[in-house]
Amino acid sequence: MVKKLLVDVDCGVDDAQAIMMALAVPDVEILGVTCVHGNTCVENVCKNVLRVLKVCGRLEIPVYKGVSKPLLGFVLDAGHFHGEDGLGNAPDPDAPGLDLVQKEGAVSAIIRIINENPGEVSLVATAPLTNLAMAVKLDPTIPQKLKGLYIMGGNVDSRGNTTICGEFNFAADPEAAYIVLNEYLCPTYIASWEFTCHSKLPWEFCDDWLAQDTDKARFMKKIFKHSMDSCYSERIEKELVAGQGFISCDSYAMAAAIDDAFILESDYKAVTVELTGTYSRGMMIVDHLEILNKTHKACIMRKVDLEKFKKLLTNSLK
User: Fold this and answer.
1) Under a CB-based contact definition with an 8 Å cutoff, are residues 191 and 151 in contact?
2) pLDDT in tens, 215-239
3) Domain-by-domain residue ranges, the chain?
4) I need a surface site. Which of 14, 122, 148, 268 has the fewest CB within 10 A?
5) Is 267 part of the annotated catalytic residue set?
6) Which CATH number is 3-316 given?
7) How distant, in Å, are the alpha carbons of 48, 203, 256 from that of 209?
8) Cβ neighbours, 10 Å, residue 211
């Protein structure tokens, strides 16, 4: 069975890792990559996706430009970690041009692709959820036609990485995250920020992973250097949990979409997003007491098969 994926990204380094992971799996078909604001501006996101597809020899996969700013509020970016261009400030003079981006917009493409493949598409969202929120408002029927929705974002212990209580993807567009968690009533899987921190890999694995003698590994080593230097610096200066190992945040959601058996332990809870708190705007709310009276429960990842994860990552650079 071929697994059909639609991928929505704000292509920073970990989005690139997730895309390359999926492209290396023989029975996975990426129907399209939709781009949105986030780690960098949406124009850079489009350029970055094309660079990733080029190094993988897969430029035939359509790329769609999406929304450039959140539904409300200010634009955030993660240039301090991913580099101002999103890929480690490692420019490529031979990068594909934006003329390869499809004329159709990302929101329209999401609606069309899901409607053309009812019950067959898994949507992997590793970015602020603006494109998805816009899509469901234009066509409220698309969630029931999805096979599954895999999200990297949100948090379960109120530990933020962008605001006091907010993870980046949700904090970058809280209203969009709220809409998606409340209106996509399809099987939903969430790789939260704290979960990824608890599922880190040794830096020694990362060193070996990048040492593979391939063009893909050399590309990854070049774009990842800026983020790795940031992690090492944070580990030395602040001893942050994220600095104590290799975390490819977006790849956890992608690995789950590739193979559900990757998830070993999970909680099924109703979730929503706080929109008005002084310190907690953008925080994901997990309804442990079932006060929300929601019938739709998300699968919140707790433990995954890290050996399988290592193999997927290793194969992505072969």
Assistant:
1) yes
2) 999 999 999 887 777 666 554 443 4
3) 3-316
4) 268
5) no
6) 3.90.245.10
7) 21, 10, 20
8) 10
